[in-house]
Amino acid sequence: MNSTDLSVLNVAVDWLKSCHPVAIATVVQTWGSSPRPIGSWLAIRADGQVTGSVSGGCVEDDLIRRVQTEILTKDLPEMVIYGVSQREAARFGLPCGGTLRLLVEPKPELAILEAILASISNHQITSRTVDLVTGKSTLEDANRNEPFICDERIMKTTYGPRWRMVIIGAGQLSLYTADFALASDFEVTIIDPREEYVEGINREQIQFIKGMPDDVLLDIGIDSHTAVVALTHDPKLDDMALMEALKSPAFYVGALGSRINTQKRKARLLEFDLSQEQIERLHGPVGLFIGALTPPEIAISILAEVISVKYGVPIPKKV
Known about the structure:
With 319 residues, this protein is of the alpha/beta class. It is 33% helix and 23% strand. It has helices at residues 3-17, 60-69, 86-92, 110-121, 172-183, 213-220, 235-245, 259-269, 276-279, 295-310; strands at 22-31, 41-45, 50-52, 78-82, 99-105, 126-131, 137-141, 149-150, 154-159, 164-168, 187-191, 206-209, 226-230, 252-255, 282-283. Helix 1 crosses helix 4 and helix 5 (172-183) crosses helix 10 (295-310). The chain starts with a helix and ends in a 9-residue tail after the last helix.
């Protein structure tokens, strides 16, 4: 779940706890260009307060009016379509004649939304199925590959924790990498046991943990939506972290170092309880080869490679 929709979920729960009538709109289908992907959320309060977006601002004003005057008085979800005709698309400012189909739920269930939040905080993936006939929702365990479904009977959406990047080391390169990761909507954790680096982490959005990387990785738990990047250039710290990361379900594991040093590191790791297959998961030298020289450029190359792996894009051979 990206940070925008997670924020919508948190706010909607707060509003419902405060006894405000709330409707939740979900993007269920788009035609043509669309600024918001399928599954995006918008929560609308009875007094017109909103959080989130379903169109980047094109239809929100009209949707708020419809929710206040019509939809909140109903009990069942309602399908709302914008941009059926070219004229209507132009009226609502939908780009390239696009069409937007939304499912609006006038009675979202607080207990269900709280359960989704709890599963996200526990790094679990959950699917919610909304019965369009009754308006009731059910939850079940899921995986990230389950498709979004919306037909005349149900809407099924998968929710999971944000993508996470765990960075080993708190040096200058780590901070640049953390900044680009935050901008790319990753949740960021930096691990470093060295006292001299503690004061350098002064960003509220970054979780800093002072401790031995291998121990901390075991404590925080590494799952399939986590990238681990070792950037201390100190084998005593990086290798210990890599031993745990390469055995974990992490979708990406990378380490700073030249090609020669990477081969030496792989040989060292073979001396521990790692298989050749696990060691070959290591991305090293870390980052796409773009000729990067400065810390910001190297950080960009790291994020480019992590994002490529995240979306299953083949990595060019490093020269």
